[in-house]
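Reopening this one. Same input as before:
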Amino acid sequence: MSFKTILVPFEQHDLTNSILNTALLLARQFDSYIEGFALRVAIPTAFALGDVGPLPIPALEEEIAENEKRSQSLFENFMQEHGVPCGAATKSLSSAWLGNAPEGDYFVGSHGRVFDVIVLGRPGRDPRGPRMTTLEAALFESGRPVLIAPPSPPSQMGTNVLIAWNCSTEQARATALAMPILKRANRVIVLTVEGGAAVPGPTGQQLCRYLQLNEVAAKPLTVGLDGRLTGEVILFHAKALGCDLLIKGAYTQSRLRQMIFGGTTRYILSNAELPVLMAH
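Same output, byte for byte:
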């Protein structure tokens, strides 16, 4: 597997530049094709009296159409400014815009099934920014990994990688899907948090052996909680080690449980300052 095809659902907000830069960093490593489309929420309707039924609001439809034009222009201008040919998919570095994409987050997951990775922004509290519903549609509906861009555009990615090992199926899958990046990395650390959120399974040392047999020079690191949350420990060590990418399985605990009680995935999604490759 390689990351030859990259999907970028496009919205205009403060993280747009970081999302595009994160996608481009990955694309340059693999000579990838980047496809963008305008991500839009479902159109509300106004109900008229009589037998005519529901009618779409013309002003809103016009605004959405204008927003898609602006999004396409921003996407294509970014690609042109960074030397990425725009207009058609090729086997070398290239890009294209998908017009008239269906509305709603579900399309992110369904269309994402025919791409190697989906690049999204880190969800936050700003209602005008990236939404958690979009990220979860990508994670749960596409069957593909999701690369989450940090708030600020990264300058490099994938040279110094941290794997947040918790022995889970989700983490094993995320690690396997990240293999093309891991094989190119200068350093790969497998982090185990003793006493942290984990499930029964292979140790970090066993994962390192698996990676080493696959030509990844991985080294184990075991640390304690020291009164902190698991997600807090992971991000602390990612920063302390100078890592430029975190590999994390998503939602080992259920989404509902994490929504109510919190969890490692939720903490990382709320606080990560580096790119995170996630898979469920």
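So the earlier flakiness isn't reproducible anymore. For the record, The longest helix spans residues 58-81.
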